[in-house]
Design goal:
The protein has about 350 residues and is an alpha/beta fold. It contains 10 helices and 12 strands. Strands 7-8-9-6-5-4-3-2-1-10-11-12 form a 12-stranded mixed sheet. The protein binds S-adenosylmethionine and iron/sulfur cluster.
């Protein structure tokens, strides 16, 4: 075990590096905990306690934290939620973030329903790519998973994103055994026809309630084997070593990518470069963190940029080595995925 690396936030060359010598270059910003879906693997069905408006970080506060993080070496930002497109004036935040010097990439994860209204404004503001979550191409199965009968709206959102140039477009598909796993080859066909990347995400224990379990989890490897029985795959030559997704391309040269985010059965914690900011301004150093580091409180109390940078560095130095989902030491976080920002 190594000792936590000391961060010098006062130095202009200060970088976010955790106690395990991992460099933190990705920040995911949740802009709201609200959502118009009720995905069964994510959010409670009813009696949801949304964050009171006054506890939400303002767009200015989010932009300030992002600017400070970029000054400390963050190179990629992703906006998420809740449903990020429910946050008013999101394009203005995108414009502010896109103008930050030193940023390599700005992206968004969305359920897609508001893209017909917002895709063009987001692209004009400087958004580069979107990931649209889509768990089923069958209307009834979709409605069962999202608890909203909105598949046509999501498909319209995907078209709007493509037309606005928010590409390459990725589809996020959480797979649950007995619910949508039979659609994996249909998704492969969809990816080939449209040239999309479809990323299959293993169900993680971040849901409201107790749906998660071995019975519900479909290992990514099993999905890949099912696809390969129909469409042989080859490892992608463009694999990003730090990306959570292991990417495969079609052996026959058809367009499209099959990505597998095997967070449970093949964790990628060793190469993790990510931290998360919740919509109420708390920094989380891991999806599965049990502790959060408040940035918004100090900011509202008048903290300087330098003081916020020090808080960020101190938080990052405590980043967890790995998650414990499969080793018996796992404790489920209090907040659901929709509250953390996936
Ligand atoms: N509302 C947006 C959406 O659905 O794309 C953004 C927020 S959502 C929390 C981000 C991603 O987390 C989505 O792709 C969603 O499918 C995924 N997700 C939510 N709960 C999950 C869980 N328990 N296990 C795995 N992925 C999950
Ligand atoms: Fe909403 Fe996204 Fe969670 Fe579904 S996965 S409930 S769309 S936040």
């Amino acid at each position: 075990m190594t000792t936590p690396h000391a961060n010098d936030a006062g130095s202009p060359a200060a970088q976010l590096r955790d106690g395990w010598n991992r460099s933190i270059t990705n920040l995911r910003i949740s802009v709201t905990d609200r959502c118009n879906f009720r995905c069964v693997y994510c959010i409670p069905e009813e009696n949801i306690e949304w964050l009171p408006r006054g506890q939400l970080a303002s767009l200015e506060e989010l932009a300030r934290i992002a600017r400070i993080a970029v000054g400390l070496g963050v190179r990629r930002l992703r906006l998420t939620g809740g449903e990020p497109l429910l946050r008013k004036n999101l394009p203005s935040l995108v414009a502010e973030l896109a103008a930050l010097p030193g940023l390599d990439d700005i992206a968004l994860t969305t359920n897609g329903t508001e893209l017909p209204r917002l895709a063009r404004d987001l692209a004009d503001a400087g958004l580069e790519r979107v990931n649209v979550s889509l768990d089923s191409l069958d209307r009834a199965t979709f409605a069962k998973l999202a608890q909203r009968d909105l598949l046509p709206d999501v498909l319209a959102g995907i078209e709007a994103a493509v037309n606005a140039g928010l590409t390459p477009l990725s589809i996020n598909c959480v797979v649950i055994r007995g619910t949508n796993d039979h659609e994996v080859v249909t998704f492969a066909r969809f990816a080939r026809e449209r040239g999309f990347e479809v990323r299959f995400i293993e169900f993680m224990p971040l849901e409201h309630g107790q749906r998660w379990g071995e019975h519900a989890l479909v290992p990514g490897r099993e999905l890949r084997e099912r696809i390969e029985a129909v469409f042989p795959l080859l490892p992608s030559p463009d694999q990003d070593p730090h990306a959570p997704s292991r990417d495969w391309v079609f052996a026959d040269g058809a367009p499209g990518v099959m990505g597998f985010i095997d967070s449970v059965t093949a964790p990628f914690c060793d190469g993790c470069t990510r931290i998360r900011l919740t919509a109420d301004g708390k920094l989380r150093t891991c999806l599965f963190s049990l502790n959060e580091h408040d940035l918004l409180g100090p900011i509202r109390a008048g903290a300087s940029d330098e003081a916020v940078a020090k808080l960020l560095c101190a938080a990052v130095s405590t980043k967890e080595l790995k998650h414990h989902i499969t080793d018996g030491l796992f404790v489920k976080p209090q907040r659901t995925m929709s509250q953390i920002g996936g």
